[in-house]
Design goal:
CATH architecture of the largest domain: 2-Layer Sandwich
Helix content: 25-40%
Oligomer: single chain
Order of helices and strands: HEEEHEEHHEEEEHEEHHHEHHEEEHHEH
Shape: elongated
Bound molecules: adenosine-5'-triphosphate, manganese (II) ion
Length: 463
């Protein structure tokens, strides 16, 4: 018989007929003459109940000893379940045991485990309800993101993971080298001789695919990247990973307003996809993780985002300085506490803050006529703070070169980036969205280590 996924079995219109399923035992209960097995195969949140009669040939030898975590295949008849909360159950005719699970050492028990504990067994946590749901939602959201861009004619570009251009956030990058660290070659003046290194110059893991994304946007008009990103920031926060996934669209012939429109539609439509395809998991998060998740998500989908300038945002924030740990004034960076104040307390929905002081934003952002602010935009989400950071890019070559020098960057190192302004320069814009930040938003989870399968954070790269 051909095995089915439990999701397909439970979607059947009526009971009756034989089915075969395969999965892992979540719980088992023995009563007189029967055992009840709850089987999960990850296709959905729900388990299916299997009734195993003592008349089964291997009942005493193999079924009775089964415990939580063991893997089995079951053939039997699908019948209406008399029990509450489940539609069908399977009356087993045959049970094959693949692998047992030693009950004394199997770490997952029926009781609830803390997320801290589950992080220490990240190889088994996908077998819990919460982490199964996160994995499904993560996969579904990835698909929704690709679909969103594909529907709009965006080309998916793979930007490099290893980069040799010392871009943006120097100091936060992971070095990539094959030099013998115990015996590093030196130049006559004592510096590391990178000419002997693999790439003949210093190389790093990428902190953003944007600059390369701009190359393709100025040829294919609309592109996006979706790939791993690395930041060696030694900040042990619940919002930062050393390895995370970033989505970065880049659009030619597009100004900051178009950029904001796209970002807003992006969040709304991809969340709508989750409503349409992952409601069972979202309801689980809403019940068990954070009872405000669904309300927050509906609020995002149903209402236009608030848009205001940094200057206007500051005017609001300075009035509440007594409530903040970090006091702000015009020119200050906006920290998570301020971001949350705006999105949760003041506007109660996502807020797009635009036109930040040039001193606190990157060199490539388009300078405004006031020479003080740049065409940047950050989207601040309730509970999360910054979820998207974007900007219109400086497309005037002279201004861009001047801005590089202000940031102590050598325009020579960016010759190819400047070429994009030298040949057929166009207004263009884009943004970066941290995929795991969005997963925090949609799941209600509070620690970013729990929404990526294998978190990399300072002092942690097990599994
Ligand atoms: P933050 O101030 O929160 O550190 P950032 O200003 O460094 O963010 P950007 O450089 O604009 O962020 O990166 C774009 C997006 O990538 C952010 O809006 C955020 O969603 C995400 N992001 C940035 N750093 C991390 C990280 N270390 N782990 C996970 N996501 C991140
Ligand atoms: Mn950062």
């Amino acid at each position: 018989m051909k095995p089915m996924r439990i999701k397909q079995v439970l979607a059947r219109e009526a009971a009756g007929g034989d089915v075969m399923i395969q999965g892992w035992i979540r719980t088992k209960r023995d009563s007189k003459g029967f055992s009840f097995l709850e089987i999960n195969d990850g296709s959905m949140m729900a388990n299916i109940q299997v009734v195993a009669d003592e008349k089964l040939a291997n009942y005493a030898s193999e079924i009775v000893p089964l415990t939580t975590g063991a893997s089995v295949a079951i053939e039997g008849t699908l019948v209406d379940s008399p029990g509450k909360g489940q539609k069908y159950e399977i009356h087993a005719e045959r049970i094959m045991v693949f692998g047992g699970a030693d009950a004394a050492s199997y770490p997952l028990q029926k009781k609830r485990h803390s997320f801290e504990f589950l992080r220490t067994i990240a190889h088994l946590r996908p077998r819990t309800n919460t982490f199964g749901a996160i994995a499904r939602v993560r996969s579904g959201l990835s698909f929704a993101i690709h679909q969103f861009f594909r529907d709009r004619g965006f080309v998916y570009v793979h930007t490099p993971i290893i980069t040799a251009s010392d871009c943006e956030g120097a100091g936060e990058m992971f070095k990539v080298t094959t030099l013998d660290l115990a015996n590093v070659p030196r130049t006559p003046n004592g510096a590391i001789d990178f000419e002997q290194d693999f790439f003949g110059k210093p190389a790093n893991l990428t902190v953003s695919g944007q600059l390369e994304g701009e190359i393709f946007a100025t040829a294919l008009s609309n592109i996006y990247t979706f790939g791993p990103t690395f930041r060696a920031e030694n900040s042990n926060t619940a919002r930062h990973l050393a390895e995370f996934w970033m989505i970065e669209p880049e659009m030619a012939f597009c100004d900051l307003d178009g950029d904001m429109d796209l970002a807003e539609a992006f969040l709304q439509e991809t969340i709508q996809y989750l409503f349409d395809h992952h409601m069972e998991d979202l309801e689980f998060f809403n019940q068990r993780i954070d009872t405000t998740v669904l309300e927050t998500l509906h609020n995002i989908v149903d209402n236009p985002f608030e848009r205001l300038s940094y200057t206007d945002a500051m005017a609001i924030l300075v009035k509440h300085n007594d409530e903040f740990e970090y006091k702000v004034q015009w020119g200050s960076d906006i920290q998570t506490e301020h971001e949350r104040h705006l999105s949760e307390t003041v506007f109660k929905k996502p807020v797009i803050v635009t036109d930040y002081p040039k001193s606190i934003k990157a060199f490539y952002m388009k300078l405004n006529g006031d020479d003080r602010t740049v065409r940047a935009m950050d989207i601040l989400a309730p509970r999360i703070g910054e979820i998207i950071g974007g900007s219109q890019r400086e497309d005037d070559i002279a201004t861009l070169e001047r801005r590089m020098r202000e940031f102590n960057l050598d325009p020579k190192d960016y010759w190819w980036y400047l070429d994009l302004r030298r040949y057929g320069s166009v207004p263009h814009s884009g943004f970066g969205l941290g995929f795991e930040r969005m997963l925090l938003l949609v799941t209600g989870m509070t620690n970013i280590r729990d929404v990526i399968p294998f978190p990399r954070t300072p002092k942690n790269a097990e599994f």
